[in-house]
């Protein structure tokens, strides 16, 4: 059993601070509302159609936490009256002795333009290295389809440098993908061998991608 974790991201001049915590049943209504957005539904797979599916999605996230399979956080704005979920970030693929893991995210339509995703991903990445560096975690990977320009901007703002273009895998993934990397603060500068290893790992991960991930990875 993995104990729940709460993370924070600082406020900006234009937006309140963020609270990141594990998903719970109280978030179902906000989750269903977020999935009504056609932009989110373009990238998300599978969609959440109603309260029953929303509760099932949340329960799956709770089981993920308990097993350590992945760590999904609901993102809320702090000190906001009647605050509701404005986004989601997830860390997955962490294992002892494994050098890389993957992150994903989405932002609710009503909260876009307030720097939610970059700040939440930064907080997630900092925690990931603090929590799992001793187990060998050296690099976080963020992947997205090439036509998802918004994800490129989020990756750059979140400290994920562009690594390489990954080849398409039709029919499921008709377009190439972009691999972005964020390395642990104390990791040595990436050598060509390390970069090749990370790219190989990401290429394997691409075969499990939903089109457009990581705009959302439930």
Provide a descriptive summary of the structure in words.
- The longest helix has 17 residues, at 51-67.
- By secondary structure, this protein is of the alpha+beta class.
- The protein is globular, with a radius of gyration of 16 Å.
- It is built from 6 helices and 8 strands; from the N terminus they run E-E-H-H-H-E-E-E-H-E-H-E-E-H.
- It has helices at residues 28-34, 38-43, 51-67, 116-132, 149-157, 192-206, and strands spanning 7-9, 18-22, 70-77, 85-92, 100-107, 139-145, 161-166, 177-183.
- Mean pLDDT is 85; it is low at 189-196 and 202-218.
List its traits.
single chain, 218 residues, alpha+beta, eight-stranded mixed beta sheet, 6 helices, 33% helix, globular
Helix content: 25-40%
What percent of residues are in strands?
A: 15-25%
Rg value: 16 Å
Assembly context of the chains: single chain
Based on helices, strands and strand pairing, what is the structural class? alpha+beta
Order of helices and strands: EEHHHEEEHEHEEH
Largest sheet: 8 strands, mixed
Q: Identify low-pLDDT runs.
A: 189-196, 202-218
Number of DSSP E strands: 8
Strand order, main sheet: write it out. Answer: 1-2-3-4-5-6-8-7
What integer is the average pLDDT?
A: 85
Q: Tell me the span between the first and last alpha carbons.
A: 20 Å
Specify the number of helices.
Answer: 6
**What is the overall silhouette?**
globular
